[in-house]
# Entry
Amino acid sequence: MRGFNDPSIDAVYSDLVYVAQADVTRVTRLYSSMIFSPSLIRYGFMLPHPTFYARKDCYRKYGLYKDDYKVAADFELITRFIKNNVVCKRLPEITVVMREGGVSSGGMISRFKQNFEVVRACRENGIYTNLFLILMKVPYKLLTLSTRWFISR
# Structure
């Protein structure tokens, strides 16, 4: 992968495109990694985790996914890596095309569980947050959903 040509880079991430479950030719959403910043983790923002690739040494040094997380194991892992100063580089391109769906998009109950796990992940990694701060991302999410509506038209 292009970002790994530089030995000082530990991990890379990029943009992701969602396509319709029944029609992979119909783009429904662009998940841009452009706005991501480590300072946004406390608000529950995460880079598009399917686009995140880290060197094997990062997993050896900081651990694997924690299987006691049901919905936010990816959030916790990336938060732990970033908190431990893993050097991440954004690739300004789309590297993943993915169908809509999955555990974290399974409705209100799933979102509720995810938000509690995000708070837990932050606390376990020494990042101050609370449910109120996590819920502050809702207006941004609504904006991306409206963008999704316009794309699907």
About this structure: Residues 2-152 form a domain with the Spore Coat Polysaccharide Biosynthesis Protein SpsA; Chain A fold (CATH 3.90.550.10).
